[in-house]
TrEMBL record:
Cellular component GO terms, alphabetical: chloroplast
Residues annotated as transmembrane: 64-85
Origin organism lineage: Eukaryota, Viridiplantae, Streptophyta, Embryophyta, Tracheophyta
Signal peptide residues on this chain, from the entry's feature table: 1-17
Pfam families: DUF1517
Annotated stretches, region: Disordered: 25-57
Entry protein name: Uncharacterized protein
Length: 281
């Protein structure tokens, strides 16, 4: 009797382990370091040394009235405002839940990951645009989405938040089976055929994380129209402003199974954003 119980427990443990063995894809890259160097270089080069002739002046009486003071304050305000705007960065996260029948979306993302140049901001923009386009083409399969935006001062704070969000998402998959990040590529030979046992995949989750200069806003997503607007906004961010971009999707393998329960446990923010009446919008 004891042996039978042990066997049953082992079988249950095996099935639980298998259920968590969903695959993940990851593509994108960062350019925080090069951006910091460029900003620093441009600042130092913009400083000018006064010419010797500027020191030769005749004594004179300077009278400063209220109009002059107001003008000086206005100039200082504009300089400070321009500095704040130049230093402001945005970290945007968009997460989309789709029905598992959208297998062609997985194929699209896999193809993008294979061919994308992830070493430059132009490559990051390509990934954003192609991913947004593919999700838009599969919007009939979308049933939930979540967005968030955080503003940070300076590239360093922006990088910290971007890396934090990236790590939080990456640990949710059992294995990253396809990676193209900063032009470092990896493809796992692991198969998940043993996981499916003939079952159909129920859900696909796509997560887009973007760090960019300037203020970028996304409204709360409560309908397919809101999702379309958000995707188009992400796709329209100029490459010169993109500091980093990352796209993660699970399952990456078409024969992998990602259940509704797993999705709700791993992506609780999507739970409260289900659209039972999604297709009426």
């Amino acid at each position: 009797m004891m042996k039978v119980s042990v066997v049953v427990l082992l079988l249950l443990a095996g099935s639980l382990a298998a259920s968590a063995a969903f695959s993940g894809g990851r593509m994108g890259g960062t350019s925080f370091r090069s951006s910091s160097r460029t900003r620093s270089s441009s600042y130092h080069h913009s400083r000018s040394t006064p010419s010797p002739s500027s020191y030769h002046s005749t004594p004179s009486t300077i009278v400063i009235g209220w109009p002059t003071i107001i003008i000086l304050f206005a100039i200082c305000f504009v300089i400070i405002l321009r500095y704040v705007i130049a230093m402001t960065t945005s970290v945007v996260k968009l997460q989309v839940g789709l029905l598992g029948m959208a297998t062609s979306l997985q194929k699209d993302l896999n193809q993008i990951a294979h061919i994308a140049d992830t070493s430059t901001p132009k490559g990051f923009t390509y990934i954003l645009r192609e991913t947004a386009l593919s999700v838009l083409q599969h919007h009939d399969y979308c049933n939930s989405a979540y967005s968030s935006v955080e503003l940070k001062m300076g590239v360093e704070e922006c990088e910290k938040l971007f890396n934090k969000l990236s790590k939080e998402e990456r640990v949710k998959v059992h294995e990253e089976t396809l990676v193209n990040f900063n032009n470092i590529k990896k493809q796992s030979a692991t198969t998940h055929e043993e996981v499916s046992h003939g079952a159909c995949n129920q859900y696909i989750v796509v997560t887009i994380i973007v760090a960019a200069r300037g203020v970028h806003e996304l409204q709360p997503i409560r309908s397919s129209e809101h999702l379309k607007i958000a995707l188009k906004k992400l796709a329209s961010i100029p490459s010169k402003d993109v500091l980093a971009a990352e796209v993660l999707w699970t399952p990456q393998k078409e024969n992998d199974v990602f259940t509704e329960q797993e999705m709700l446990e791993g992506y609780p923010l999507l739970r409260s954003h289900f659209w039972d009446y999604f297709h009426i919008f």
